[in-house]
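Quick log. Single chain, no ligands specified.
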Amino acid sequence: LEANSTIDFNKLKNIEEIDLSKGNFDIKNIKLDDILKITDENNTLKITGDDKDKVSFAKNDGWQQKPGTTTDENGKTFTEWSNTTGDTTVTVKVEAVLTVIFDVVAPFDH
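-> predicted structure:
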């Protein structure tokens, strides 16, 4: 990604990882539906970056941090966030150095 770019989740398919390490990024208002649209059948997205990057999940959308952290094959530590719809669970693994916030209210669907 380039600085000041916007991610249109409607145009992405089969994404496994988003790397934010080449700038200061702020991914806002991640919704369950976004992750279902862009991931494959595993419904898992990994977000990597550095301490200048931020990720925010939509409030009132069901996101919960999984207890503890995991370490992937490259030795990076991640916090895991999950959400469920029906019998489908999605997971977003966020590299621990990124800031995760819940300050965005999900838009009201009409």
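The longest helix spans residues 32-38.
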